[in-house]
Specification:
Shape of chain A: elongated
Order of helices and strands of chain A: EHHEH
Largest interface: A-B, 24 and 36 residues
Mean pLDDT of chain B: 96
Strand order of the largest sheet of chain A: 1-2
Order of helices and strands of chain B: EEEEEHEEEEEE
Distance between the termini of chain A: 45 Å
Radius of gyration of chain A: 16 Å
Helix content of chain B: under 10%
Strand content of chain A: under 5%
Shape of chain B: globular
Oligomer: heterodimer
Low-confidence stretches of chain A: none
Strand content of chain B: 35-45%
Number of helices of chain B: 1
Number of strands of chain B: 11
């Protein structure tokens, strides 16, 4: 992955977690965290310049957030199903 | 005893047309904009990049510090100076003025784009101030496969749409001046932008 955008983070980590994850990456790569509004949202962060270790860290965060989001989604589905069976 | 070498070198004089790009990704601290081998922004690292098209006479980059000078009564010249402000701008006269993508970049803060069947429009009024990451990229004289870059990480067009002439005799153009704004949470020596070249 060469860049992260809010859209790509929302798709991977879910809308609720995307902003916190973006800020964590922004801090890790010293992109700056007071980026403000760039054409209606936060700007893409170019990951290419990060060290390999930092790129791996970002990948790990993304994977963890994706599995967390998937688990939350399946738990929600289960609870909806249970409520439907009552 | 020996003389000292002179430094006359035409290959380090910039003398090529550049390309203006907006909507670029923010580089990590200590890193630079990622370019493709053709000198355009790498598309996957810069997914929102747009080319601002042709200019009338190229582009001008400025980084102007302001210095406060301190005097002592005993001396006639300043005894010390301190930089108190830094203005970084990138300006050009853009020709492709009816391009909706270009207009969106230059009307940020006062223009709102919308489209519907049959038209695209920009309405003017008070909007949310937004920024763009903008760069001027040009090939080096020493090696046209290597590029140099002036980059403002967070900038806005402070000129608005000024004196847009639509005439039979001349080409349209808009004088834009993108002013760099500090990203205050970056390293203090790298808050507004950068110049770098490939070697």
């Amino acid at each position: 992955m060469k860049a992260v955008t809010m859209k790509s983070l929302q798709e991977k980590a879910g809308k609720d977690n995307a902003r916190a994850l973006y800020m964590r990456i922004a801090k890790l790569g010293k992109y700056g965290t007071d980026l403000g509004d760039f054409e209606g949202g936060l700007p893409p962060l170019d990951l290419s310049g990060l060290s390999e270790a930092k790129q791996r860290q970002v990948e790990e965060w993304l994977e963890a957030a994706a599995s967390e989001s998937a688990a939350a989604e399946s738990a929600e589905k289960k609870s909806t199903k249970k409520e439907g069976n009552k | 005893m020996a003389g000292t070498a002179t430094n006359n070198d035409v290959t380090v004089i910039a003398n090529s047309p550049g390309q203006l790009w907006a909507g670029l990704a923010i580089p990590a601290g200590g890193a630079a904009l990622t370019l493709d081998t053709d000198g355009t922004p790498d598309a996957t690292a810069n997914p929102s990049a747009i080319h601002l098209g042709m200019t009338r006479e190229g582009a001008v980059f400025n980084v102007k510090p302001a210095f406060e000078q301190f005097y002592a009564d005993e001396f006639s010249s300043p005894i010390k100076v301190r930089m108190t402000a830094l203005e970084a701008t990138l300006s050009a006269e853009l020709l492709q003025i009816t391009d909706a993508d270009v207009l969106q970049k230059i009307t940020a803060g006062f223009g709102t784009y919308s489209s519907a069947l049959g038209y695209e429009r920009t309405t003017f009024g008070v909007g949310v101030q937004s920024y763009t990451s903008i760069a001027l990229i040009f090939p080096t004289e020493a090696d046209v496969t290597k590029f140099a870059v002036f980059h403002l990480y967070k900038a806005f067009n402070e000129n608005g749409l000024d004196s847009v002439a639509i005439t039979r005799k001349g080409m349209s153009g808009i004088n834009v001046m993108f002013r760099g704004v500090d990203i205050t949470t970056r390293t203090a020596t790298d808050t507004v932008g950068a110049y770098w070249k490939q070697v």
